[in-house]
Design brief:
The protein is of the alpha+beta class. The protein contains 10 helices and 11 strands. A hairpin with a 6-residue loop joins strand 2 and strand 3.
Length: about 290
């Protein structure tokens, strides 16, 4: 178990933590940085920023513009995320069912799991006809205003829910965003009673988001299944009536019934060479990045 203050442990590698902080400092507002900007963003000296940037560039995690001398993230940062998704047992079980729900409803379907006080999207099948907003894999949404967050919180005891809500930075993203802790706790309790959660335009305007909990074999809620529609095309009542029964059945299947090998095959990344001319067996090729 990780201690309450891991930095005080003799096992804690401070230089590794600082290197990770350098990588995490890059974002949409800081897509590229000079050495002084890296130092300021991370809170280290310019000489330390130079050493970390040089090492991360040598490892292929950063790239340096030869003219401006500014650093930015490289595509190598996607590798760990790729391996995480490919080895995720829940996502492997869920993908065929998520795709089936997406095809039957024609709407965007997501799978999200908790990460601190946020939900991070690890699976997504977009609507072919309606795209309300761009939601890439890895996107984090604060738990308090996400339908998947409320679905996840519905499986937790009230004291744990309150602690998460009170510790969250409850930003009012839209006029519809609920930020009061007691009001949010009431919504979580309602989701617990109903078996599903609903957020109407609380993070993105026009996004009517429904979610149901995903459980492990012991019955604990570990993730949330989300289906999003446009609030200009659907009322809350119609959307709940139309989609929640199918969502609950999909969540039940993900939680209890592994899909058959044929259903999982399209989501496997093993590459195979064609049969040779002599009619021999096909030969498996290494997976990308292996």
């Amino acid at each position: 178990m990780t201690s309450a203050n891991p930095e005080s442990s003799t096992l804690y590698v401070q230089s590794l933590a600082t290197g990770m902080s350098v990588l995490k400092a890059f974002n949409t507002q800081r897509s590229s940085m000079s050495l002084p900007e890296i130092a300021s963003a991370v809170g280290i000296s310019k000489s330390a920023a130079q050493r970390f940037a040089f090492t991360l560039e040598a490892l292929g995690m950063l790239k340096k513009d030869p003219y401006s001398k500014r650093y930015s993230l490289s595509s190598s940062n996607l590798e760990s995320g790729y391996h995480y998704l490919q080895s995720h047992p829940l996502l492997e079980r869920a993908n065929p069912y998520l795709l089936d729900l997406n095809q039957r409803t024609g709407e965007t379907v997501n799978l999200a799991e908790p990460a601190g006080d946020c939900m991070v999207y690890i699976g997504r099948f977009s609507s072919l006809v309606r795209l309300i907003m761009h939601m890439p894999i890895g996107q984090r949404i604060p738990m308090f205003c996400a339908s998947t967050g409320r679905a996840y919180l519905s499986g937790q005891p009230d004291e744990a829910v309150r602690a998460i809500l009170e510790g969250s930075d409850r930003v009012r993203y839209t006029p519809q965003t609920v930020t009061d802790v007691d009001a949010l706790l009431a919504l979580v309790r309602q989701a617990r009673e109903d078996g599903f959660a609903c957020c109407n335009g609380e993070f993105y305007r026009g996004d009517l988001a429904l979610a149901v909990p995903i459980r492990d074999t012991a019955g604990n809620v570990i993730a949330g299944l989300n289906l999003s529609v446009s609030s200009t095309a659907w009322t809350v009542k119609r959307a709940i009536s139309k989609f929640v029964p199918s969502m609950l059945e999909t969540a039940r299947l993900i939680s209890t019934t592994p899909p058959n090998p044929a259903a999982q095959r399209p989501f496997r990344t093993e590459l195979r060479m064609p049969r040779d001319e002599a009619g021999g067996d096909s030969v498996a090729l290494p997976q990308p990045g292996s």
